Amino acid sequence: MGNRLERLLDSVQAATTLEDFQTATEKTRALYRVRHVVYHWVNSEGERFGAGTYPDAWVDRYLAQDYLRMDPVIFGCFQRFTPANWKDLDWSSKPARVMLHDALDHGLGNQGYSVPVRGPNGQFALFTLNHEAEDDVWAGFIARNGRDLMILAHEFNRKALEFELGEAAQTVPSLSPRELAAMRALAMGKSRAQAAADLSISEHTLRVYIESARHKLGALNTTHAVARALSSGLIIV
Amino acid sequence: MGNRLERLLDSVQAATTLEDFQTATEKTRALYRVRHVVYHWVNSEGERFGAGTYPDAWVDRYLAQDYLRMDPVIFGCFQRFTPANWKDLDWSSKPARVMLHDALDHGLGNQGYSVPVRGPNGQFALFTLNHEAEDDVWAGFIARNGRDLMILAHEFNRKALEFELGEAAQTVPSLSPRELAAMRALAMGKSRAQAAADLSISEHTLRVYIESARHKLGALNTTHAVARALSSGLIIV
DNA sequence: CCACATCCCGCCGGAAATGGGGAGTTCATA
DNA sequence: TATGAACTCCCCATTTCCGGCGGGATGTGG
């Protein structure tokens, strides 16, 4: 298996187009002999970037029904660090069960394993294997391959990030120390007056920092600026 | 090496106290024959949780000098997905060079390799190996062990998360879909009027969501609420 | 040495957000 | 079926923020 995994990793590393990603998911499916393999990058507007072997009908259905907003796989993995066996997630809500039934109707297997991957700026992606199997068989499969799948998931994500960055070179503006301190204070809930007191400067001066930070960040208002500073990793709360 | 790595992973998995983490970093140092090994969880107030083999004098110095705010290792790794060889980071700023010199004076090696690890709710940690070596020797070391180190880093972080959650069960408040949508709109720079228009509701209604979200998040104002929603991973920008 | 960035301070008018209050509907789950 | 949570709408007075304008002092890097 080791050698085949290496070859698979090489093929991921060589990916430069969406089709290559598609091919890589298919190779993964072939290697692990599962029903489906999917890598997708999740953000607030839905899927930003993805490739996988799910039937088109299911993908369309998923997006059309806005399942993204209720999918326990997405939601559950978003809250945890370790990969998740689908059976361990919370399917108690009604829409979730409806979705699951719908998924099975579209040819998905009853078992799944999703590896959450996180990148800078709150980037979040899932690498998922789906299969039809008994619970204990699937648990054994995960136990054997979990570690390799994590490596694979990270490799997919690394290439996806490169891919995206290639599209639109993200220029993270550099803020001055005072500007950063101002953003940090605001992110911690301080009012301008409090923040100014914290930095031992006049409120007017603080405003200058906030404004210049806003301009550098291309933000529309203070809240936007703080949000951008946070999600671009300039400040940590 | 495989067997020794497994034993090391077991010892990480068995960790329940800070001392256990400390021991695990020492075992890692012994296994890889490097000068220092550190795992630390980074947030805005500095180190939240950490264990490692750095001399106490250096840790104190680091905190006292507020090096956290300028450390290219922290900053660089926070911006990237892949682990970083210290030599590849940006040491151009003067304070960064001063810090590096200071570090060498405190017994650190000239080479380093830091694996960024990200968890839910914007959690961020670094797993670092430090050593004294020639550039090419170090590059070879990384090439051989990079994958194992990633696994190890994730294992450290998994236990650290369990540890923290045990200490104070982090209650991430659950926002309603509308509240989330409101936070999302604000985080994207929308004014209240625009956000209300986006959600096709009156501005007054939008305000109710913002306020209830603020209360749930324990935030002092709207900006704070958005910051918390972002850094707790409730919304993605 | 000069330029550029950073750091600090001030004023203004208009626009937006805040923090209270109350009141009705729908929907899911218990 | 009832309880609670979510969703929707409205008013008012006060505070805060916004986006310009102006100025000067102090550094570091080329």
From TrEMBL, chains A, B:
Keywords, alphabetical: DNA-binding, Transcription, Transcription regulation
SMART domains assigned to the protein according to its UniProt record, in alphabetical order: HTH_LUXR
GO biological process, one term: regulation of DNA-templated transcription
Coiled-coil regions listed in the entry: none
An annotated Gene Ontology molecular function: DNA binding
Domain HTH luxR-type: 168-233
Pfam families per record: Autoind_bind, GerE
PANTHER family (UniProt xref): DNA-BINDING TRANSCRIPTIONAL ACTIVATOR DEVR_DOSR
Record protein name field: LuxR family transcriptional regulator
Organism: Maritimibacter fusiformis
